Every structure is written in structure tokens, then in C-alpha cells.
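Protocol step 4 of 6: structure prediction from sequence.
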Amino acid sequence: MNNAPPVRAIQIVNEEGPDEALAVVDVPEPEASHMMTPGQGVLVEVHAAGVSFPELLQTRGQYQMKPPLPFVPGSEVGGVVISAPGGAAVKAGDRVAAFCALGGWAETAVAPEFFVFPLQGLDFAQGAALVLNYHTAYFSLKLRGRLTEGESVLVHGAAGGVGTASLQVAKGLGATTIATVSSEEKKKVAEEAGADHVVMVTEGWKDEVVELSGGGVNLVLDPVGGDRFLDSLRSLREDGRLVVVGFTGGSIPEVRVNRLLLKNAEVIGAGWGAYVMPKPDLNREIGAAISGLIDAGFVRPLIGQRFALEQAAEALHTLDERRAVGKVVLDVRGG
């Protein structure tokens, strides 16, 4: 029986959108055995929690994971270990970044031990920005996209969480990076993330990318989708790969597959979460690779807007209205 005092949390209580769906509540402290993912649990005192598109979709009932209402959302956190099972890579008192799938928007959360990583040289907000975006970036670029040193990468949505992470990971893997953005403010963010070139998404952006890359890029990483997809294919060089990560632009593109024949190109899906969840060793492998990139100075999560836990709806509107730059986080314990 859990005799710990209740903890403050955000729950999704209906599916009517961010303003109506979210409630600040006191809930029982979670137990390490209660997880949405397989494996032994690590109990974490949460200091910062990441804000991502899945949470926005969950407030509308549009996400594939649909727990019974009410539930505490939030997939990634930065905090301090309260307790960990024997054999885990972390122990009580360690500062960590963790991926918990659900339950992160609370003062205490539980994550499987293979999704908890020591937080070296980064603060709690950066820890809350580390797993979802950077593991997705490494999985998409290296494991799915087969990126090799010396190749060129075009990153769409380059000022967002996945975009900035992908720029940094690509640089760490030895690639030349080209970023696309939609405003001068986002251009500065992409440059801060290490983009070698930044292209504004206006008519003719594809031609600029082809010129900058000397005839086309080796790989396109696209978390946006929408109407730029066709020009993304056109921006590839021979044997190029287009990696589909998501559709933050709102629409799922379609393409005539004869265009793949023209340049012997590939379109590759990169669905990180469902693929890695049942593979503990793969998560540890990706975590070790990201740690190496942190040590080498390539990975430094860029934190954008920060909100108190009670302002979670406002944080989701920042994503929904495409105002996010870098990673949006909740300061769960006041910063």
C-alpha cells in the first residue's frame, strides 16, 4: 500500500481540447510497478516535463494511445531518482532524463529502467527535452535513414524540438545540414542549433536547397508533411532518402511513386515509439550514442518557452499555433 502524500498533477478529464480537457489535481504518488511500458520501474521526482504533440492530440482524443479518462499525460521528464530497481544504470539521488510514456505531468512519475538515463552536463529542462526528440532524431537519421559521415541532410521544421535535435545529431554524425524555417526568429534558432545553411520556406526553396547541396541532398528528414513533401523528393540527389517522422503541418501527403524511380529514391517511415518500446537493449544503445554526442559537445537541447504546471493548456496552444521554438517545457517544481 502506498502511504506517500498525494502529488500535484495535470489530468486530461475529457477530449474537448486543451482549455477544457486539462485539470490541476492531487493524485496518489505512482508506484514503481505501475507503468504503461514493460520493464522494472524507476520512481522519479519530476522537476521539468516536456510538452509534445502527442499531449495536444490526447486532449482531443486523436492520439493512438487512448488510456481511460481521467489520466495524467506527459511522456518525458527531467528530475531526480527516488528509487530504482537493482541492476538499473541509475540509483536514488541521481539526476536523470526519463521517458515514461504517460504520467510525466506530475510531481512524481515512473519510467522503465531502460528509458532512464544519467543527466550529464545538462539541466532538468534539457533533460525533459532529451529522450523523445533526440532518440527520435538518432533513430530516424542513423538507424532508419542510414546517414553516414560526409552526407548532406535537409531538416524541415528545423526550429522545433525534433528539428533542432535532428540538426545537432546530424552534425554529430558528420553531416552537412540545411534547415528550412518559416520566420526570422526561427532562423536564429536553427542557426543556434548548428545548421550550416538556413533556407526560408518561400516559393523556390527547393531550388535553393539543390544549389546549396551541389545537386541535391542525400537525406531529407521531415516531421512536417503537408504540401512541401513533393519538393522534398525533388530536392534529393540520386540514391537519396526521405525519412518521414510525422505530420505537424496537419495533412498527410501523397505521392506518385514514379517519382521514386526518377532518382532511385526511397521514402522511409520512422516510427520511433512503437518500434523501440519492446526493445530495451536498443533503447540503451541509442541512449549510449546520445550520451557520446553530449560528451562531444554536439547535443545541447534548446529550450524555448517555459510554463508553470498550471499553464499546461497555454503550452499546448504554443505548439498548436506553431509558435514553439526549441523545446516547450513545464517547470513542475517552479524551475
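Step 5 (inspection) to follow. The first strand starts at residue 7 and ends at 12.
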